[in-house]
Each structure stands twice: as C-alpha cells, then as structure tokens.
Amino acid sequence: MPILVVVCDIEGTTTSLAFVQQVLFPLSRKEIGAFVDSNWESELIGKLRPEISPFTKENVIQTLHSWIDSDLKHPVLKEIQGRIWKNGFESGEIRGHVYPDVPENFRKWQARAVRIAIFSSGSVQAQQLIFRYSDAGDLTKYIDAYFDTWVGTKKDPNSYSKIAIRLNVDPANVLFLSDVEVELDAAQTAGMKTIQVLREGVIPGKHQKVRSFDDIKL
After folding, report:
1. Domains defined along the chain, listed by start
2. What is the reported pTM?
3. Can you list the alpha helix ranges (DSSP code H) found in the chain?
C-alpha cells in the first residue's frame, strides 16, 4: 500500500540526541525552580499533587529535577519543559537542531502530497518550537500534525493506532521513522510500516534501516 503519511520521532531521528541532552535538558533543569515558584497555584502544577507527597514547592522541584535527570517521560514534566524552552527559543538563546537531510526530504515528501506528522515524548509545544526555530529555518510549514505522550507512550501499539485514527488514515499507509527499536516494534504491531534511522550511536535492530532520510524511498 502507498505511503500517505510519514510519522517521525524527533530525538535521535530528526534531531541530535546531544542537542536534547546537552542543551534542552540543562536549560529546563536550571529554570524549573523559578517556573514552579511562579506557577505554584496553576492547574498544571496541581496535576502533580496525587503523585508527590508532601506536596511542597521544595519537594515538587526536587522531584522534577530527578525526573529530568532520569529522562522520565511524564506528560506534566514535558509540558513544563516546553513552556520553559519557549522562552529560550523565542529569545534566540537556542536554535533547534535538525540533521541536514531532514529539511530537503520534508520538502520533497510534501511536494509528493505525503503528509508529515511528529510523535515525540516531548510536548507538542516543544516539538513545534524545535521545528519553528530550527537551524534550517521554520520547518513547521511541512508538518501537518504533532502527537505527544498524551496520546499514549511510544512503546504502546495503541498509541500508534490512535494516531492513525486521528490522521484518518489506514495504519498500512503510514511509515514510522525512529532510532528506537521498541518504538518501531509498537508501530509495526499497530500495522504501520517502519524504518530504523541509524544516527550516531544507534544499535541496529531487525527493522529496515537507513542512515539518512536521503536513503528512504517512498
């Protein structure tokens, strides 16, 4: 069946893992205390109350720091990080890294009427910031949809089924690109086609493999 939609992971697929770990994570860790302090009465921080006890500012900040350090894919943490990163991107302090082969292939796929979507553990806002303020310019004009962990975890086949439903497309018409084999396994279980993108340091798995988006033939 023809590929109608390409769904891309970000970290390690369109964007360097080092950028996320060495630029984005340290910025959110540095600013998270001030964020909690200024948003203490917000609904977003309130969502953490059932999970953190005692529910004090000090303990919430300490818990969020530990979640960042362990790269926990918690949707509230990801939402907070996205809001912090927004200031950094909009001020020009940081630019979103994308691999050089990404922009041109986004352009080619769109020209062929292939839709592009993003599925990442980072919040939708964070995803949009990376591509809007990328070092290759604004790439959001190529992207039709964004999905984060509010749709489900990236290791759960149901997440990919939900994405296909929201995109109004048969899973067999979707190609999922990621560097992580367990994510590819989940997408394949949901009926999607899969390709593992072998960026730096990626361990090859059993799925079809490419080293660059240039090697993908739709």
Report:
1. 5-16+97-215 (3.40.50.1000), 19-91 (1.10.720.60)
2. 0.86
3. 17-19, 25-38, 43-46, 57-69, 75-91, 101-111, 124-132, 157-167, 181-189
